[in-house]
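Data availability excerpt. The first of two example chains:
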Amino acid sequence: MEPGFKLNLHDREKNPCFESHDPSMMYDPVSGMYYSYSTDAAVTSAYRQGIPVRRSRDLVHFEFVGCALSEQAVSQGRDNGPGYEPTFGFWAPYVEYVGGEYRMYYSATRAFGSSESRIWLAVAQRPEGPFENRGVVMDTWHTPDTEPNAIDAHVADTPEGRKYFIYGSFFGGIYIKELDPVTGMPVNPSPRYQGVRIAHRPERSYIDGPEGAAVMYHPGTGYYYLFLSYGWLGDDYDIRVGRSRQITGPYLDYAGRSLDGEGWGLKLAGSYCFRADDPWAEHGQDWQFAGFRGPGHGVPFFDPVSEQYFFVHHVRDGAECLRRKDGDRDSFRMHYMTVRRMFFLDGWPVFSPQPYAGEKGGICGLRDVAEQDAAKAAGWEWLRLKERDNSPAASVCSPLPEDLPPERAMVFECFDFENSHTAWALAGITTGGEIIWGKKI
């Protein structure tokens, strides 16, 4: 048992999850393999435009396949018309298998930080491609920054078989509009039709966002869950969630505040650091483990094979030797695709504090583990993900906090990334609505 990537190994061929930014995930029922698509990004590899593809048989060990878009699709997608520079890279693809074809929604923006963007739908007969463009799904060129940005596409299904398209960013917020399930194009054919706004940052938000949104329906709870990210992606990025009985909202956070202008959502992940005696990494003279920075921009994923829920996102190596400055903000460039197990507790999702390493074990209650270990006086190393503080959460070794009753936590087996051995992990929600991550000492 081992996680799918190593820190400080900056070689995509040896460490295929390296350089994956804004990853998505799909299970291919034809080949029985898992495919992940990500933003055009390269740190040490040769750069190529066209949507990188990785595949796996177990959601742990991946291989880099290449780029998915055809040369014609790349040429069309990057063309911004006379007088404008071509788009250099494509962002945040989402792919699904529908009606015998593979459909990719990807973003082409004028420049980093611009709200002049387009989302294309491209289709293929194979998950590796080549994908050919079918048309523009959303277009926000020549619109003010107060309106939505055509970026960060996701598709969600209702139990009745209707399809909805989720997109947007801190320019104008997150929007949703219905798709034709036969073609994958919008029911309203105008690429200028925005849809319904479902999330927007509060008026006096202390962090940027939201962006990187995704929606998933959970049949066990009867809720739709809206996942999104806030913060600066180089350092204080995070992952949050709200829920609704209707796919078009309103989505509420744990305290009942609307994600459309009132609350940010329950924070499921943020920058963090556990103690590390033997981290899963390539050890070098200058590199020292300093936790993870900026987990964010991911997608929920149900694996029909294992019948487990996962969340797939990118995360950055927080080693001090990798710290850079971006204006007055800290930035960490080395990023990796991370797969985490996702569980549901009291009607809300929680993530494992550890990257997925193929664990198959079930869940047990915190009270049961405490009773088993009472004679050993075993303790926990734990940290709190604070709602209004996106600085890195540091762990402590002490009894679990009093605002985490046993019935509000679950315990499960994991691979301890920081110490390279198996361990018990904990995820819980306090009575005040903050996530606790822990590991058994």
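And the second chain:
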Amino acid sequence: MLRLNDTDINQNPAVWSHDPSMMWDPVSRRYYSYSTDVYRPKSGLCAKRGIPVRSSPDLVHFKYEGTVLSENAVRQARDNGEYPKTENFWAPYVEYVNGEYRMYYSATRAFGSSESKIWLAVADHPLGPFENRGVAADTWGTDDTYPNAIDPHIVREKGREYLVYGSFFGGIYIKELDADSGLPADGDPRTLGICISRRAPKGPVDGPEGAAVIYVPETGYYYLFQSYGWLGDDYDIRVGRSRTVTGPYTDTLGRDLKEASMGLKIAGSYQFRASAPNVRDTGNGWKWGGIRGPGHGVPFYDPVSGRYFFVHHFRDGAAINRVYDKKEDRASYKTHYMMIRPMFFLNDWPLLGPEPYQGEEYEPLSPCEVQGRREIVIFKESDNRMQTGQEETADDKTGYPDNCIVYRCPDFENGGVAAAVTGFTDSGLAYWGKFMYSNIV
């Protein structure tokens, strides 16, 4: 289970997971989470390029399994010709398709560059070795007005397969793939596709990136998730929806995610009160500082439970993790972890649970089953600063109890059981809540 202030990946496999994805393997009947290359040899994370993977039988207990790209695939994807070799690979997404495991991953010229490639590698086992089949998207040699070929995700509509990709620069794009090979339908990796999200010219927050699209049959919508903000501190998670996979994707007010809106913010930096968070006491002065920058997440449907979840990374907000960059004039929080949250749908919009998933059975509660005051955080549209929990009564005008979901779950910050709340305020903002001095009838 997730434990803060523990950077030994063998004891705490959730640590050092960045840009995580999740898949259910119907063959081994296990879950696998693949993530960006991160080198922490002293923490048990191998100093070897090639996409780390963690496995789990239940989405709670994970095991670090090593890296999965073959040496040949790594050598091939690192080769940038006359330019320095790619240092690490980013944001993998893996599926089991047509009897093989397909991994899409990013190789960029350098950190911050818009010149990148998305490779497709295949294997006959989720732990690899994965061998490169070809390039699915290529923005090498383009300028910053073009999309960046990173952060791949796959979605399907009526038997047709699409690659969702992009980051900052020219925005988020979607292009069709050949369903049999997994490579571009027109055979050209440099075909861009269609733009479905892009920051407004003078938008208040940097982004978007880390996009993923999922279709939800229960609502009939495709949902585009993406992140805005600085990934080291004030990252967030936003969403828009569309009736068709290629868009347009709009927010709750009908504004297009292509320059008119960043989307409905459903998660950002937050700090509930914490009397007993799950933490390893190492004597290093760690003190609770909330959850920073949840983002770059992937929604997924779990066929075992029939429930929806969302996996993302976040940064531990403890002061000992803060590093200030004078040149960039911004702070970063250096220790990051994977978190899985339950995902619900209210008024045909997705909402995330305020507490990490810890194996609980979803147990909805009616308002008459909970008593006392609650602590809430409200996610403001353009303010990505840390949101601190505020006390509120059930009579305050946040929309409770008609426009929210209340359920029983473990309390990550305080131990025991919590009555968690996720919903919309009267003004349409997403918020999270937990009942304080909780008295669950």
